[in-house]
Amino acid sequence: MSDRFQVLVKDVMAKPITIAKSAFVSEALEKMLGEGVDPLIVTNNGTVIGTTSRAAIAETLGSRKTQALKATSIHVANTVEENFTSAYPDQSIDILVPLLQHYKLVVVFDAEHRLIGQVTAGDLLKVLRPAGGILEVMEPAHTIQGEERAVHLRRRMLDGEIDRFIVEDGDRILGIVTETDVAKALHAFKDLVEETHQDYRIRNLLVRDIMTAPLISMDADTDVSDVIDLMLKKNISSVPVRQSGKIAGVVTRNSLVQAL
To answer: Tens of pLDDT along 61-76?
Structure first.
């Protein structure tokens, strides 16, 4: 039996990071950024009822239903995704691979169904790493011009189910923009810009105004383990791959788990 089957869920799980459904989304986003996690486990009177993510918060903050509300007055309950999965601590680590290929987080319960841990792609990648080269584990790279409006970016994210774009100025790479950048920008606007000016200001916000720069990337001949180590050290969810001076694709935590 290989070492992979000797490792149990309890050997890789981390302390669960939770938030109450009655908390405000501003608090949830602050906890995600501070703890470097996404998503968060949502509880109601100590019972797990689902998760909330940066993408869900961005979608809620950008909704017309919450247009007149500040982030400090919108409850986490409005962003809860009830579809989550779970495991038990004494199960083999092998069960985590298919689960994390479909979910961003696995909730760990004890025999009495009490919450005792969580496992994310990052936790799994500390002990399991895909074989092959970096080109075999990357996803297609999607690009957007820095002068595009952020509202168009958000629409492309929602319509195409895309969570990150490489930002360009013509053929020149400027940075990257993710769901996190969108959530942070909408949160800031909700709390800093007067309600009467929000719609105008948001519609004139450009992608380059909210992107993350400079871009952290790696060459196509980089070892997969080195890419994973960088992602874990920098607490980032993706690394664009350069080949022949151009972006060939993006390695993400999800693409790495899919390759296991």
So the answer is: 887 777 667 777 899 9
